[in-house]
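Retro notes, item 3 of 5
We never archived the inputs for the iron/sulfur cluster complex last cycle. Fixing that now. Sequence and ligand:
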Amino acid sequence: MKKEAYLGVDVGSISTKGVIMDGDKNLLASAYIWTEGDPIGAVKRLIEDLGAQFDREAWEVVATGTTGSARKLVGAMLGATVVKNEITAHAVGTTAYHPDVRTILEIGGQDSKIILLENGIAIDYAMNTLCAAGTGAFLSSQSRRLGIPVEDMGAVALKSAHPTHIAARCTVFAESDLVHKIQMGHTKEDIVAGLCEAVVGNYLNNVGKGKRILEPIVFQGGVSKNIGVVKAFEKALGAPVIVDENGHLMGAIGAAILAKHHDARKTFDFGIENVAFKTREVICGQCPNRCEIICVYRDGKLIDNWGNRCEKGDITARQAKHA
Ligand code: SF4
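Structure as it came back at the time:
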């Protein structure tokens, strides 16, 4: 008999993450790829990658969870047994490895969030809405400007003894201040360290505003790989900041754990590479609300829809009734 495994997928606007776990929270396979504006294509590549790492003779994926901004679409594609928001998935994933965590700081490519927990339960959260200056996209664009690969930014920042102050009220201010500081002759090390501090300052002033940041603090998301930003957080908070080696996969890990704990079971079929998925938006005209309904088709057949505010707009249910 095959052993049971659980698949978790986290599809964000920048990156798509996936893990397969056993019942004891051990990772059997993991993958991290770029979404490149095509969540459907990214998920197909992700599943192929995970399938290649995974021993399908010995294991069987019996439940699947999805999270992230494209969680519903991907949940429909994969026949997920659980679809959960990122806050829940990150809280569940992180507490699995750091049960005492009180604060989760997360900075991704395009968004950031903070989650506050008590006894392993998320009690408050905030997400960035407007400004990119507290995200990885800002660091990436500035690394190009400075001619330093983004993955080297942390090591460069650590060489600085006097980080340059960079005004980071918003991306536009930060960029023009950065150019000004380059022209003033500040060293690259000081500027990069200043950028790391600017990202942290912006994050704490926007996302973390008014929140009580208590220890233990876990920092995750793509930017947590930048040791310069980790150090800047420790300096600003006056407390140690934990970075888990699987921090970039925590959403997917949380989704897999949620799938494991859910009652629903459905064997996952890895063969989705040749399946055609399409989405279409239709307006429900049955009342003045005119809800925008997203329909997902698998090989031309409607498999899911959402966006309707009432049952009358549930196209899948309507079709099933008349089938
Ligand atoms: S889904 Fe319901 S609320 Fe939305 S437009 Fe249709 S009938 Fe109106």
